[in-house]
Specification:
Layout lengths: L2 H15 L3 E6 L5 E3 L2 E2 L6 H7 L7 E4 L8 E5 L4 H7 L4 H7 L5 E4 L3 H9 L4 E3 L9 H14 L9 E3 L2 H9 L3 H24 L6 H14 L3 E2 L4 E4 L20 E6 L1 E3 L2 E2 L2 E6 L6 H19 L9 H16 L7 H6 L26 E2 L2 E2 L7 E4 L2 E4 L12 E4 L2 E4 L6 E2 L8 H10 L1
Parallel strand pairs: 1-7, 5-6, 7-8
Antiparallel strand pairs: 1-4, 2-3, 4-5, 9-12, 10-11, 11-14, 12-13, 15-16, 17-20, 18-19, 20-21
Helix pairs in contact: 8-9, 8-13, 10-11
Length: about 425
C-alpha cells in the first residue's frame, strides 16, 4: 500500500487526539511455536494501520504539533550478523526513507527519549493490556514522571485507550483499503473453486484444505484464519478445526476459508454436495439459507442499522423452518421466543478489514450502529441440524452456511465475493466438472 495512505491516516489520527496528546504503539512481538522455532511474523494491526512498518522490536510514537518531528519510529539498528540470518532490516535510515518517519531512533534508546516526550503531554493514547511485555515499561515511565514532578503542566496524566479513536477510523475503509479487500476476496474465490473441483468421495478434509492453502500461497496470500473443512456431521460444528475425516458419498462439505493479502482479510463460506448432487432435504435447507442470505445482503445499505441484516435472516429462516415442518407456531411468536436458535445459533456477520473479525463497535450509545458507506462486513447465515427425535431423519447432520464479503456503498451493497458460485445448480455443475 502506498506510504501516502499511511501518512493520511496519521494526519487524521493526530487531528483527532489533539495537541495535548501523545500516542505510543508497540509492534507485535515475535512469538515462538515451540523451542526456538518462531511463528511467521504478523504485525500488530493498529501499529501497521498507522505506520505500514512490518518489523518487530519497534515502537511508533505520534506527537501532534511537535515542531521537530510529529511521527517517530524506534527500530532495530542494523546488525550484520543477525541480518545474515534473518534478512535485511530497515534500520533508522530505512524507517525514515521507506516508511515516512519524521525521525527514527534505535529501539535501545527508547528509555532515554520517550519519557521526555511523554512528560510534555496530558493524555497518553496506548492500548493497555494488549502488550503485556510493554505495559510495565509504560507504567514505569509515567510513574517516574509523576514522582520526579517533571510534568510541565503539573496536571495528572491520563491514559486513553487507542481503540477509542482507531477502532472507528478503521471501520471506514478508504479506496486503497477497499482495493485490498477486493483482491483478498478475489484470491479466496479462486481457492474455493479449486477446492470444489478437487473434492470428491474418498478424499480427506485435510487434502481439500491443502488445495485452499496452495491457491492462497500461489498469490502471495496467507490464511486469514484456520480453514474449516467440515463434511457430513462436521459441518454442524461451528468452529470445526480437525479437518481429518474422509469425505463420503452423500455428504455436504462446508468450506469456511479466507486469505489475508497485503494485511487485509477475506472470509468466505460455501457448502456443496461432495458427490455433485444435493439430496432433496439438503437442497431444501440450502435454498432456505440462500434465501436468508440474499434477504440479509439486501439490508446492507446506508441508513439501515447493523442488526437489520440479521433480523432479515432470522425472519427468512424461521419462516422457512415452519414451511419444512421443523418449527411449529406463528412466525411472530417463534421469532420473539427465538425458537430458531437450535438451528441458527450465531449472528449473521461481523466487521471485516485488517482483522477477520475487525474492530468497531456494533452499538453506539446503546443503539445499533447505523451502516455507512465504506464499512465492510460479512453476511453469513446458516442452519445446522443435529440428530434429534423432533427432526425427521433425512435432515440429520445437515449443516449449511453461505458467507460473502460485502461493502456498504452509497446505494446497493457491493458483494466482493459475488462471482463465486452459490446457487444449487451452479455448485452442482462446478463440483461435477471436477
Amino acid at each position: 500500500m502506498d506510504r501516502k495512505e499511511f501518512a493520511r491516516r496519521r494526519r487524521q489520527f493526530m487531528r483527532m487526539i489533539g495537541k495535548d496528546a501523545i500516542a505510543v504503539l508497540p509492534a507485535a512481538p515475535v512469538r515462538h511455536r515451540n523451542g526456538d522455532i518462531e511463528y511467521a511474523y504478523r504485525q500488530d494491526s493498529h501499529f501497521y494501520y498507522l505506520s505500514g512498518f512490518p518489523e518487530p522490536d519497534a515502537v511508533a510514537v505520534l506527537v501532534p504539533g511537535r515542531a521537530q518531528a510529529e511521527y517517530l519510529l524506534f527500530v532495530r539498528e542494523h546488525d550484520a550478523l543477525r541480518e545474515s540470518w534473518d534478512g535485511a532490516w530497515a534500520g533508522t535510515d530505512g524507517a525514515v526513507e521507506r516508511y515516512g518517519a519524521d525521525d527514527a531512533f534505535p529501539i535501545a534508546d527508547i528509555d532515554e527519549i520517550l519519557p521526555g516526550l511523554m512528560e510534555q503531554r496530558q493524555r497518553i493514547f496506548y492500548s493497555m493490556g494488549a502488550h503485556l511485555d510493554f505495559d510495565p515499561r509504560m507504567l514505569a515511565w509515567v510513574n517516574a514522571i509523576r514522582v520526579q514532578g517533571r510534568q510541565a503542566t503539573g496536571a495528572q496524566q491520563e491514559f486513553v485507550a487507542l481503540s477509542h479513536v482507531l477502532d472507528d477510523m478503521r471501520l471506514y475503509k478508504s479506496r486503497a483499503e477497499q482495493a485490498s479487500l477486493r483482491r483478498a476476496a478475489h484470491i479466496a474465490m479462486g481457492a474455493h473453486r479449486r477446492a470444489m473441483r478437487f473434492a470428491r468421495p474418498g478424499r480427506m478434509e485435510y487434502e481439500v484444505m491443502a488445495e485452499l492453502v496452495h491457491e492462497f500461497r500461489s498469490h502471495n496470500a496467507d490464511m486469514s484464519y484456520q480453514p474449516i473443512v467440515g463434511s457430513g456431521a462436521n459441518a454442524c460444528i461451528m468452529h470445526y478445526r480437525d479437518n481429518n475425516q474422509r469425505l463420503c458419498d452423500g455428504d455436504l462439505l462446508l468450506l469456511d476459508a479466507g486469505c489475508e493479502h497485503d494485511y487485509y482479510a477475506s472470509d468466505v463460506t460455501r457448502t456443496f454436495p461432495v458427490s455433485g448432487r444435493f439430496s432433496a432435504a439438503q437442497r431444501a435447507i440450502y435454498e432456505l439459507v440462500l434465501e436468508a442470505q440474499l434477504a440479509a445482503i439486501d439490508k446492507v445499505r446506508p441508513g439501515n442499522h447493523w442488526n437489520q441484516p440479521h433480523e432479515a435472516a432470522v425472519r427468512a429462516i424461521t419462516q422457512g423452518l415452519i414451511k419444512l415442518g421443523l418449527l411449529k407456531g406463528s412466525l411472530a411468536r417463534l421469532i420473539k421466543e427465538q425458537a430458531y436458535l437450535p438451528f441458527f445459533s450465531h449472528r449473521t456477520g461481523h466487521w471485516l478489514g485488517l482483522d477477520v473479525h475487525d474492530v468497531g463497535d456494533y452499538r453506539v450509545g446503546g443503539e445499533w450502529r447505523v451502516l455507512e458507506a465504506g464499512m465492510a462486513l460479512t453476511v453469513e447465515p446458516g442452519i445446522y441440524i443435529r440428530p434429534s427425535p423432533r427432526v425427521p431423519r433425512e435432515f440429520w447432520n445437515i449443516g449449511v452456511r453461505i458467507e460473502d464479503d460485502v461493502l456498504v456503498t452509497d446505494g446497493a451493497p457491493e458483494v466482493l465475493t459475488a462471482a463465486l458460485e452459490k446457487t444449487p445448480e451452479a455448485l452442482e455443475r462446478l463440483v461435477q466438472a471436477g
